[in-house]
Amino acid sequence: MSKAIDNQSDWATLGSTAQALTIAESAVNHDGLTLVITATTAEASALRRAINFFLQDSKIESQVFPDWETLPYDIFSPHQDIISDRIQILSELPTLKQTVLVLPLPSLLHQLPPTDFLPSRLFDYQVDQSLDRDKLHNQLTRAGYQRVDTVYEHGEYAFRGSIIDIFPMGEKSPFRIDLLDNDIESLRIFDPESQRTLSNVERLRLLPAREFPLDKEGINQFLNHWHDHFDQSTVNCPVYKDVKQGIAPQGIEYYLSLFFDHTATLFDYLPEHTQAFMQGDLYSTANALWEDINRRYTEYGVDPQRPLLPPKEIFITVEDLFSAFKQLTIIHKEANASEPQDTVKSSIPDISVNSKQSNPLEKLEQFILALPADTSLLFCAESAGRKEALTALLAANDISPQVVNSWQTFRSSSPSMGICIYPIDQGFYCKRRNICPVSYTHLTLPTICSV
User: Fold this and answer.
1) What span, in angstroms and rounded, lies between the C-alpha atoms of 60 and 74?
2) Which of 92, 101, 88, 84 is nearest to 48 (CA)?
């Protein structure tokens, strides 16, 4: 366990950047997955950015499992890029090691396809391998890919003579298969805008294009389950009619459970030896999310042409969520907002720059002088331009931080003061370890938190 904090009550008083340091150090010393659950998507993005700062020189990667970015029971579907990221993470999650996965609570509440769905629809091709065009067409259709004239987005493919273009889910660029008779002569990654080749590869891995099956078997499963759930006539029901024709209508994600005999949750995908951190008041947030889900179900569930599934068939209940939490190895979590806190968060004196004073950095200088002599202070600027501006401002007051490339370089070289380029949202001062990262924004904002 990281030395950044000593107990659970301390964890609740830390700022997000100090928590990120704790998580990063714990992930480095843990062989398995490190799961971080946040209350909101915005908090997940900010926390991951801070975690990446402390993991810059390590081989450990961090990811955010994205939310659909739709409201409950929306008639809109998530963007293909979001679906691509989700499917890629789900396909890799059961075997991930030494990775940090940041998971916003709204993403966690959604039920998911069974854990055997993605592996059963995963296939790949290699250079010099024989390829049956009709078989590939059937595989892509079964996996939910859409045939188009020109490939631009995830989940699309095009057949053009001896050339086949595919934009696989989970990949950043589309692939081009060049055939010589029935053999794969080359596999190339290309730019969809210019159509120019970016690089050659030896292998193409294809994931399903959706989190549900839209092949014959999946469609029949959906239609049968629809009749089990709804008594309304399907004559004027566009969702039913579209799926019957093999079309994925907008908002079909909120009927996901009809494609399967049973669904899963993200907890079912987690590998063994997963350690977890929790940030924020998850209990209150989960209850607020469920209030919104129930409200929208009541509000939009009156249309006979678009009947809705009950919330419990789409989302994880608060009770089931916290029951699943109990099965995790939780390293640190925050108490509920209603629980009293034993540790009071103290603040550092205002260090913001005041250009109206004769010495604009007077507050910062007083703060630096008050720090113990062995404290290492690191200024973090969002860009090269801001770093140069801050360096010039500090130099005018005879403050000369050493330029460093990363947090690891800063800690290993142990300068009394350093400066780097990285956009952290919040700095902190750790008395126990005599370290003090300072965000550029703290020179214009009134306070940073102390730990």
Assistant:
1) 36
2) 101
Which tokens belong to 196? 């120019």
Residue 352, pLDDT score: 86
Rounded to an integer, what distance in angstroms lies between the CA atom of residue 12 and that of residue 5?
Answer: 10
Helix (H) or strand (E) holding 390: helix 384-395
Is the pLDDT reported for residue 451 higher than 60? no
Minimal CA–CA distance to 393: which of 350, 354, 445? 354
Pairing of strands 329-332, 156-160: unpaired
CB 365 within 8 Å of CB 396: no
Largest CA distance in the chain: 79
Q: Is the per-residue pLDDT at 2 higher than 80? A: no
Least confident of 151-155, 256-260, 332-336: 332-336
Does residue 5 surpass a pLDDT of 70? Answer: no
Q: Is the model's pLDDT at 432 over the cut of 70?
A: yes
Number of Cβ atoms within 10 Å of the Cβ of 117: 21
User: Helices in 235-356 by DSSP H: which ranges?
Assistant: 238-244, 266-269, 282-300, 318-325
Query: 123-206, superfamily in CATH?
Result: Penicillin-binding protein 1b domain (3.30.2060.10)
Residues 6 or more apart whose CB falls under 8 angstroms from that of 449 comprise: 13, 14, 15, 18, 345, 347, 348, 426, 428
pLDDT tens for each residue of 158-193: 999 999 999 999 999 999 999 998 899 999 999 998
CATH of domain 362-450: 3.40.50.11140
Beta strands 163-166; 61-64: pairing state: unpaired
Identify the pLDDT of residue 76: 92
pLDDT-based confidence at residue 425 (cuts at 50, 70, 90): confident
The phi, psi pair for 148, rounded to 5°, reads -135, 175
CATH code: domain 8-115+216-332 is 3.40.50.11180
Nearest alpha carbon to residue 66 among 77, 78, 82, 88? 82
Total-model pTM: 0.84
Distances (CA, A) of 179 to 42, 184, 186, 197: 45, 5, 7, 16
